[in-house]
């Protein structure tokens, strides 16, 4: 039966954190932002993570949006990502990206790598822009609901049940949405995400029921064995 396969963007479809590149691109003025992003990546509290993202984006106020667009040129597609997405589409599945990153940046990245036509929908945040300049604000239900709110939208859009939704992510903040869908796949998870799986009864139950899978190798084709 066709599924809806949802991918996180950073460090799943991309090979490095776009957020970190976003900070480095701004130069010395945004060293504080880069430091803040490193803290975000190690955050154990999803609610605090999404609040802190808003605070970090404020530091980018006044920066030309074209700087953000350059990131689409700096970011590289993760190994085998194009092959996996094409195979999923050929198998009749819907492919969705769920990310707190800027929607325009993600779509630019997909177009650059010639995979935009294989992605059915992008649920992402939107950076506030006025006259080509960042306002320091960020918008979107993905950020507001910590990604979890997207599940109901996907069910409605694709006339499917949450049991037929699979989410592929890599970090601690991806775990809440994994609890809300049929299957979760942790792709090259960081130590915090690994530790949380062992400490969380619901996640351990999902793993025992073969609804949560951990992939340690940086090879996206490994997810295909868990999608039927």
Q: Outline of this structure?
A:
The protein is of the alpha/beta class. The chain contains 11 helices and 7 strands.
Describe this structure in words.
The protein has 228 residues and is of the alpha/beta class. The chain has a single domain, classed as Rossmann fold. Helix content is 42%, strand content 19%. The chain has 11 helices and 7 strands. The chain has helices spanning 18-25, 31-41, 46-58, 65-74, 81-90, 103-112, 141-144, 150-157, 175-178, 191-199, 201-208; strands spanning 4-7, 94-102, 121-130, 133-139, 165-169, 183-187, 212-215. Strands 4-3-2-1-5-6-7 form a 7-stranded mixed sheet. The radius of gyration is 17 Å and the shape is globular.
Helices and strands, with pairings:
Blueprint: E1 4-7, H1 18-25, H2 31-41, H3 46-58, H4 65-74, H5 81-90, E2 94-102, H6 103-112, E3 121-130, E4 133-139, H7 141-144, H8 150-157, E5 165-169, H9 175-178, E6 183-187, H10 191-199, H11 201-208, E7 212-215
Helix pairs in contact: 1-2, 1-4, 2-3, 4-6, 10-11
């Amino acid at each position: 039966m066709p599924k809806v396969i949802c991918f996180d963007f950073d460090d799943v479809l991309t090979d490095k954190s776009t957020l970190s590149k976003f900070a480095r691109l701004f130069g010395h003025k945004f060293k504080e932002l880069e430091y803040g992003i490193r803290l975000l990546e190690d955050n154990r509290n999803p609610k605090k993570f999404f609040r802190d993202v808003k605070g970090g984006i404020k530091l980018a106020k006044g920066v030309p949006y074209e700087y953000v667009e350059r990131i689409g040129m700096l970011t590289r597609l993760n190994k085998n990502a194009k092959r996996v997405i094409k195979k999923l589409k050929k198998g009749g599945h819907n492919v969705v990206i769920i990310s707190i990153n800027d929607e325009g940046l993600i779509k630019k990245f997909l177009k650059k790598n010639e995979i935009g036509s294989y992605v059915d929908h992008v649920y992402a945040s939107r950076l506030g822009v006025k006259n080509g300049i960042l306002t320091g604000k960020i918008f979107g239900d993905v950020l507001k609901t910590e990604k979890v709110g997207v599940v109901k939208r996907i069910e409605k859009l694709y006339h499917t049940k949450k049991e037929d939704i699979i989410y592929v992510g890599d970090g601690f903040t991806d775990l809440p949405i994994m609890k809300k869908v049929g299957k979760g796949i942790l792709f090259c998870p960081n130590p915090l995400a690994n530790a949380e799986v062992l400490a969380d009864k619901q996640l351990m139950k999902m793993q025992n029921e073969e609804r949560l899978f951990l992939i340690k190798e940086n090879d996206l084709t490994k997810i295909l064995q868990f999608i039927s």
